[in-house]
Amino acid sequence: MSLDRDTVADIARLARINVADGELDSLAGELSQILNWVEQLNSVDTKGVEPLVGVGTAMAPLRQDVVNDGGQADAVVSNAPDAVGPYFGVPKVIE
Amino acid sequence: MSALSDLLRLDIASARKGLADKQFTARELTEAYLAAADDARALNGFITETPDQALADADAADARLLAGNATAMTGMPIAQKDLFCTEGIRTTAASKILGDFTPPYESTVSGKLKADGAVLLGKANLDEFAMGSANITSAFGPVTNPWTPEGAAAPLTPGGSSGGSAALVAAGAAIAATGTDTGGSIRQPAALCGVVGLKPTYGRCSRWGVVAFASSLDQPGPITRSVRDAAIMLGSMAGHDPKDSTSASAAPVDFEAALAGGVKSMRVGVPREYRADGMPAEIDALWQEGIEMAKAAGAEIVDVSLPMTKMALPAYYIVALAEASSNLARYDGVRYCAREDGNDLTEMYSNTRGTGFGEEVRRRILIGTYVLSAGYYDAYYKQAQKVRTLIANDFNAAFNDVDVLLTPTTPSAAFAAGDVDDPVAMYMNDIFTVPASMAGLPGMSVPAGLSAEGLPLGLQIIGKPFDEASVLQMGQAIEDAAGFDKTPRLLAGAKS
Amino acid sequence: MSTIEGQDGAWEMVIGLETHAQVASKAKLFSSASAAFGGAPNDHVAFLDAGMPGMLPVINQRCVEAAVLSGFGMNSTINLKSIFDRKNYFYPDLPLGYQISQFSDPIVSGGWLDIELEGGETKRIGVTRLHLEQDAGKSIHDQDPYRTLVDLNRAGVGLMEIVSEPDIGSAEEAAAYVTKLRAILRYLGVCDGNMEEGSLRCDVNLSMRRPGDELGTRCEIKNVNSIRFIREAIEFEARRQVEVLEDGGAIVQETRLFDPDRGETRSMRSKEESHDYRYFPDPDLPPLVLEQSYVDELRAGMPELPDAKKTRFVTELGLTSYDADVLTADRDNALYFEAAADGRDAKTVANWVTGEVFGRLNKNDVSINTAPVPAAELGALVDMIKSGKISGRQAKEAFEAMWAEGKPAQTVVDELGLSQISDDSAIEALVDQVMQANMDKVEEYRGGKPKLIGFFVGQVMKASKGQANPASVNAMLKAKLDG
Hints:
The complex is a heterotrimer. Chain A has a domain at 5-42. In chain A, 32% of the residues lie in helices and 9% in strands. Chain A has 3 helices and 3 strands; from the N terminus they run ααβαββ. In chain A, strands 2-3 form a two-stranded antiparallel sheet. Chain B is an alpha/beta fold. Chain B has a single domain, classed as Amidase signature (AS) domain (Amidase signature (AS) enzymes, Alpha-Beta Complex), CATH 3.90.1300.10. In chain B, α3 (26-35) runs antiparallel to α5 (51-67) and α12 packs across α15 (378-399). By secondary structure, chain C is of the alpha+beta class. Chain C folds into 3 domains: 3-294, no CATH class; 303-415, no CATH class; 424-482, Orthogonal Bundle (Arc Repressor Mutant, subunit A). Chain C is built from 15 helices and 19 strands. In chain C, strands 1, 2, 4, 8, 9, 10, 13, 14, 15, 16 and 17 form an 11-stranded mixed beta sheet that branches. Chain C has a 3-stranded antiparallel beta sheet with strand order 7-6-18, with no helix packed on it. Chain C has a two-stranded antiparallel ribbon with strand order 5-19. Chain C is elongated, with a radius of gyration of 30 Å. At the A-B interface, α1, α2, α3 and β3 of A face α12, α13, α14 and α15 of B. β1 (62-63) of chain A pairs parallel with β3 of chain C.
């Protein structure tokens, strides 16, 4: 699979990572190289094989419906780059 | 060698004895490490040093020793990989994007070590978000391998991602350190720095409070100066955590006591597929020596086959990068992070993430995003998870016949950062460690010899799920037989 | 399926509903912060809910139970193994950068529920699936001129998304479906059904076609939060689509928003960007595996559901189908009725509940659980009528006072001095007294004016200060006057 610069730009948009125009070609080359390398996996016959979900035989534990967390708004916003009182501030979103 | 630097050469087991016998106090031990901090700084092993915390911890440890309720870790000056969230102490994941993130919580594993009385010297450098095999992707600069020869053109890398942890332990700048291993991030740097690195079974140590790289692979573990230390430290770090749904409810094990078990008549598998693809002669030779050591210790050598070995690395990169692309979505500049403004929300996101993540992390997020995207999921992610099932099946079949597997840890000794310039070649560093990661198995690297250039090389022992005991026993046998007692050139406290 | 008339022939509506029902749990789906509505900003937030590094999800058992019970309530299959997936997208109210949901392997699949239509007909609506997922936080756009503010109290609250088959053919059917679904969830105690607080909200998928044609292109109307709005949104959207189609246009598949103030739907351009959610199993959560015995236990503990209750009210209590419907539409109403009717004449009690009680609930806008007349006191009042202690008219007077003052029936009857004279000798004395005082009228009656009986009854009742049993008075007067 060889990625072109437009595809890289699409992926970057989807991942919300700003990629400068000048970087697109070299990035397309690097990503293509990696994808070409991982594509050797297609040679493995996996007919009838279940994908691994969860390592080992673990199953999800369930917890009791008890409230013993929260009540820490100060700590929750303590690292916020733009805390507005107890809220997180972000650039205005127009619905 | 002065008394001070003597203290810096002790492993946990000897320091424990020294503290118990009142040969020195925890404060003296800690002060010795703090006095050597300049040497450690030359390696760039720490991102954040916490000397005040260390002294306070040391005094608390002395009080505990006096009161008679010390544990094996009490008073041990350690480094925490800066991927473990530490309450009130900046945690960076070696990324610019986290800014001055100061967690209001303590990770389960670092909390357990703290509760057992370990002394925190600081937060160890690593590859950004644990993504790398050379500790060169850190936003806080690369770490120098203390084995870098005199007059080398460029410093050698300590491996990665737990490069800071391994370098500090090797250089005598921390008695031990925590690491995390996703595809080899404990074992590979341990091998390249000549120390012991143990990746426990997936689920043995809690991931709660550890900055995530790839959730189905990440596993905390110890990096230490001896196999016994690894057993001691794992004992403190391990245990079921109800806050981590992937944490195993396996019964607690006294790993140190298990060491006494020995390896007599233990069946050791040697996977033939590991020899493929032009393994360097000195690595092959080391492996043969390891096999002889195991034999001499009374173990039985069995040839085994793991047919999917070659596919483990590409499958690993798909799974790990897909998970990483999702795990790192939370670094968006809203609730924490160094935000880069933009004209609107989307621009703010893209600028924050475009600027905050380094080159390798961005590359990995983009690949991970792509392999999960519509139309490609089945071909990439699902196929990789199916291959992963086959890899696990391979191991299961092999473990029907053997107790542990013995392989080299890395395909080469430490290298200089500039020597490997394309991403895929760099990924090859993990070729021997990744298969066990994919199957969630415990693996340990034990230093076993030197390369032609005088650089350390490690052997890897892989065990059955939750059978760290056998891994440690075989590790002890290799350690005893190899008698690896070389020290790196850059040694903390050597000048004093 | 009902049709609507366009300019040139009939059109058929095809509607499927995605209902989001908030699980009535104390804590959130994956964290132990409170799931309660409201709260100071970011107060109901665990570090997981704020997407802090290294925080991990653990499933709330109560939410799993709610999903299983709801599955039984909708005649569905409970999947003993289900998987939580990540739905990846960026939004400020989505702190992890993904929503934990269930995509390929939901906890509940298939099923149906019967809805009641006008004229007593029922229609079966298929249920595709039910899955568990996290709610998002709240973005506040109007509190700061330059910024959107984010409150994560809702983030991570457990939701059940219930997807219907496109079996719904009109606004009425949609309303009946939501009403029925809400009733079932409330009976099961798994969702409070409060649509104003957003505990229950619907996405409406609607397309139009000529009868017999293939399915048309659909639009999705997001987050409609009352049954009235669901009706209005569907009616508006159906007409809009017909107009577009009859003008020769094509329907654009899109997400639309219902504006209750204008009674119309409009395109949500901000959501138009094509989404690629990159679903994959959440590696932080192993598969959710349920033991058959656990599921069986939950089933055994299920309360009676509205359909079964209604049938029982008709067949065992002899209520009309209409009354049974009204009484079982809401669980709390039904429980009130059952408590009041316990050991009493069900029809009498049903009349009181559907008449006096429901009338006042509606008028005063209170819920049955806070009604000033508890079920036991309504029962006590009905007992007094039955024993003849008070008359029906007196009972209504007493009920009025009980509702206003919140006092027990006995207290009110005593305070008002209400009591009915049923004692024959006492009534006979009053009858004699009235006849003697009105001998002229007695003559007129006996001379052929039987209508005067009403006058005598009135006089006797007056003499008894309204406390005589009117039936006894009537009988006694007839006997004496005719005798």
